[in-house]
Design goal:
The protein has helices at residues 25-47, 49-56, 60-87, 93-109, 114-141, 147-176, 185-210, 223-259, 263-291, 293-302, 305-310, 316-330, 333-344, 349-377, 380-387. The protein has 407 residues and is mostly helical. The radius of gyration is 20 Å and the shape is globular.
Length: 407
């Protein structure tokens, strides 16, 4: 069974372009670069956790609460933003989102208390809630029909930004202190300039096509099957991001606690994991375009289970090697999952993107909060043993309907 061609009207889903259509590479590069800036600024919060913990005498539970705050604001708002912009596209909302992230960054630099740190995290979350669903829509619009490829290009920018955050924190924030975060506002200004160009392209493209009659979007399966498949995909997102929360939020503490590493060395190891995640993102979308989304989803979630189960028992060398393998394999899932969901619900790109980005952020935030409480009551080592079983939930991918391939 083949997937019916999705349409792109003012409602937001992309027209299934002919196979010979060329992606708008300049727009994809700009949106990916903006994603790098956006997620780099987010990752500075994660990379600053050891500094904030010492500055404000925070518990692991409070560290998790910071992650929960910025990811919860993003997760609650993203589906609403996507649903609204499906109906009424807002081309210039992207620079607004980046401005909110900039405000959060400046608040973080000069936060005098834990409460202001939480407020800064909330502004960063609001910026993400606007940026991600609209950027994902534009990536699909600029894909030339190569939807998995376009989503991977978009995602790799974000994952690369997340990866370099710890390096920048080790090089700048650790030696120069909390207020040095303000210098990264210059990167936010660059992101705003890029997004203004993207917004102009999107506005012109949307206006040029607004008057054309579009074919009706047709779902590939009955409503009951579509809703069941969406439920399965959300379970997979839960397992992926709950597990990722344990790595991204507490990996530096785990390395410091178990192997006695310094903060800069631990942040360097976090970079290895996050950079591997960025590389893995590049693979998932294009491979899904060629062989179908379901095999990529299946392998990327369930395939990391052996590595995750071995990780809590490994020495430093194998801990580094295993986390690199986990990052490579696990990160290939999201682009395939997102495009699969967009194909399940054609004509609702913004809502689907907002739902999945929002749910991913929410699970990451909830995971950080819950695991932080666990770490306070037990130990970081116990947390890593407990979350090792989460990738086994990848077995539910067997419930996805067959035949979902590129349009």
């Amino acid at each position: 069974m083949t997937t019916p061609a999705a349409t792109l009207g003012t409602g937001g889903a992309a027209t299934a372009a002919p196979s010979r259509a060329r992606p708008a590479y300049g727009i994809l590069a700009a949106i990916s670069s903006s994603h790098l800036v956006n997620d780099m600024m987010q990752s500075l919060i994660l990379a600053m956790y050891p500094i904030l913990k010492g500055e404000f005498s925070l518990s692991f539970g409070q560290i998790g609460l910071i992650t929960l705050t910025y990811q919860l604001t993003a997760s609650l708002l993203q589906p609403l933003v996507g649903l609204f912009t499906d109906r009424k596209p807002q081309p210039y909302s992207l620079p607004f989102g980046m401005t909110s992230t900039l405000i959060g960054l400046l608040l973080l630099a000069f936060a005098p208390s834990f409460g202001v740190v939480l407020l800064a995290a909330a502004f960063v979350g609001i910026g993400s809630s606007v940026f991600h669903p609209e950027s994902s829509r534009i990536a699909r619009l600029a894909s030339g029909g190569q939807h998995g490829f376009a989503q991977s290009v978009f995602q790799v920018g974000g994952n690369t930004g997340t990866a370099i955050g710890p390096l920048l924190a080790a090089a700048v924030i650790v030696p120069y202190g909390q207020r040095s975060v303000a210098w990264f506002g210059l990167a936010a200004l660059l992101g705003i300039a890029l997004l203004l160009q993207v917004s102009r392209w999107y506005a012109a493209h949307h206006v040029a096509n607004a008057g054309r009659k579009k074919p009706a979007a047709v779902a590939p399966y009955p409503r009951k099957v579509v809703l069941g498949a969406i439920g399965v995909l959300l379970v997979l997102i839960f397992s992926k991001y709950f597990y990722m929360a344990g790595i991204s939020s507490f990996y530096t503490f785990y390395l410091i606690d178990r192997f006695g590493l310094s903060v800069p060395d631990a942040q360097l190891h976090l970079f290895y994991f996050l950079f591997a995640s960025a590389v893995g993102t590049v693979m998932g979308g294009p491979v899904g375009d060629r062989i179908g989304r379901k095999p990529v989803i299946w392998v990327s979630i369930l395939g990391v289970a052996p590595f995750a189960l071995l990780l809590p028992h490994a020495n430093l060398f194998w801990t580094t090697a295993l986390t690199i393998l986990i990052g490579l394999v696990l990160s290939s899932a999201f682009s395939a999952i997102l495009v699969y969901a967009q194909e399940l619900m054609p004509g609702k790109v913004g809502m689907v993107s907002g739902l999945f980005f929002g749910f991913a952020f929410g699970m990451g935030g909830l995971g950080a909060a819950v695991l932080g409480l666990f770490a306070d009551r037990t130990s970081i080592g116990f947390v890593y043993q407990a979350i090792a079983y989460l990738p086994l939930l990848g077995i539910v991918a067997v419930l996805l309907p067959k035949g979902m391939r590129r349009a």
